[in-house]
From TrEMBL:
Keywords: Cell projection, GTPase activation, Guanine-nucleotide releasing factor, Synapse
Residues covered by the PH domain: 83-241
Localization, UniProt: Cell projection, Axon; Cell projection, Dendritic spine
GO biological process: signal transduction
CDD domains cross-referenced by the UniProt entry: C2_ABR, PH_ABR, RhoGAP_Bcr
DH domain: residues covered: 17-66
Gene Ontology cellular-component terms listed: axon; dendritic spine; membrane
Nuclease among keywords: no
A Pfam cross-reference name: C2
Record's protein name: Active breakpoint cluster region-related protein
Organism: Piliocolobus tephrosceles (Ugandan red Colobus)
Amino acid sequence: MEILLIIRFCCNCTYALLYKPIDRVTRSTLVLHDLLKHTPVDHPDYPLLQDALRISQNFLSSINEDIDPRRTAVTTPKGETRQLVKDGFLVEVSESSRKLRHVFLFTDVLLCAKLKKTSAGKHQQYDCKWYIPLADLVFPSPEESEASPQVHPFPDHELEDMKMKISALKSEIQKEKANKGQSRAIERLKKKMFENEFLLLLNSPTIPFRIHNRNGKSYLFLLSSDYERSEWREAIQKLQKKDLQAFVLSSVELQVLTGSCFKLRTVHNIPVTSNKDDDESPGLYGFLHVIVHSAKGFKQSANLYCTLEVDSFGYFVSKAKTRVFRDTAEPKWDEEFEIELEGSQSLRILCYEKCYDKTKVNKDNNEIVDKIMGKGQIQLDPQTVETKNWHTDVIEMNGIKVEFSMKFTSRDMSLKRTPSKKQTGVFGVKISVVTKRERSKVPYIVRQCVEEVEKRGIEEVGIYRISGVATDIQALKAVFDANNKDILLMLSDMDINAIAGTLKLYFRELPEPLLTDRLYPAFMEGIALSDPAAKENCMMHLLRSLPDPNLITFLFLLEHLKRVAEKEPINKMSLHNLATVFGPTLLRPSEVESKAHVTSAADIWSHDVMAQVQVLLYYLQHPPISFAELKRNTLYFSTDV
């Protein structure tokens, strides 16, 4: 009886001393989260609540790391113990093809496995493809790494087609659910969506992550994000600081270790949206405006810049890059970017030291390897970012603090065409008015931006896709609107992504699209024609029907984009990439006010947007189109559409 009382007393003490304080912090964290949701961003208590929530979450994260089930020991037949530290799905290049693997990082070994196919009702198991003891694992330097095996990159247009199919299937699933459709039909659609998402996940990564076994073979993974590559590298290097011994696993030991993977894994599903629960957030669709202000905490001066990544369709994509701030320990960028979101839930910021040593080139992609100084991630909480005011925050990374601000704009509001009240400038003014005033065939702003991009930006990676600094774009907009005499000098000094962004903004702010509101329905019908000859006749006829200033400007831009695509091996911008960037900008109708406020995936990859991309792609893939030839043919065709 006395023993039972002692045990009960000990249990009560354990609860009071260990569990109860943690439980109190957990409940306080939930209360702080709710308070923050309902506190206006401009309230004086808002930053204090933010700090309190961050401290609570960091404390709970440290507690969870210590008691995480991943840390459960695995005992081998020899009595050794090892714990699972990290696991996840990675794309491996094996036998010149892409394979999706589940990679497990234990305290002393990295194991690469695939899930075995099993019949219904049977327990699932992993099959080990290879393993490397961490004592034998090395990361080859760029100059040491051999060229990667030939893997044919997946065509961009096929990746975009997959995204469109996924979005269309999402819409169908939502309609079926709304109409209380049959569960079998919904499951069929979900299966199709999973197949497309799986292919997208398998074929989209391009960032090389090479590891080498000092006793023999090298292995190559392809990742979608530099952040992810850095996480894996850092986790492995942290474990390698311990006194590790090389070893060889017997077949029994390997079987035991591989068998434990299924039980210990923390990532259970492939990161695709079809694996999400119905009540999970669909993410944000629209435009995120981010200002990267400054950074502190560097130990010495360096050439520093930041990149921004957001998640889209289950993987992360780099969207923007600040300029390099040279020879400083406290960079102050104060640069604003507009980033398109496609079901995004997270924003990542990575801080780099720029490397100018051309000998340090990665042989997998011929790019100079810059050093990551720090990285951090923040969840995009709709309650926080969907406000008219800027939300300022700080991301802490390896002792470095990066200050930034952000706000969100829905897609329909951002792309609304608003005519300028002043007719003296060029932005928001009809193209016919501008060309008549300038006595030119193509607006001066278009000619100058194109000339500058072709002079020094045609080989820039991601030209027209990577966001330019918003403040620079607005400065150029003001200079062009005022017809300032210093335009050429300003253009020569400006970052090339800002010039590319100014050109896109000009077309986006035209009071009606370059290919006109009147012809928009006909373009949509023409691109849907299945007969090649009929499509050719229709699409050429539509060009002939455009007003001369619109047609000449369109043909001028078309030839420029073709020249940009010729440099695709260097700038990574294919014709399809360029059509995706410019299609909606040149075609999207001006009358969108009547449309409801939509933030679903269907708004981004709607049928209309797909068709707009296809229209521009048709003309980009077409042999050179001559204005004179089109006009000669006008004699044989009616101009009524």
